[in-house]
Amino acid sequence: MLVKEFGILRMQLDTKPISIRAIMKSMDNIPFLPSKKAKVDCMWRDIESRDGWHGLPEPKPPIPYPLQEFDRANKVVIVLN
Hints:
Layout: H1 2-6, H2 20-26, H3 37-51, H4 70-80
């Protein structure tokens, strides 16, 4: 694919799985915290304005967080990607 489209003859790609969750936690980027009420309110407004557009039911809080098996799902996506 790349050879045909870009004329690349050889390419080495080194990959390393990462955990986005660990990065987000280190940056204190965790949803649903009482200290982030403005952020959570904005997020819910966005979700409510889009759920009908996409034909999805309106979500009903409380939302379970942290998500179970999040790290496993992240690794599966990396493998399948």
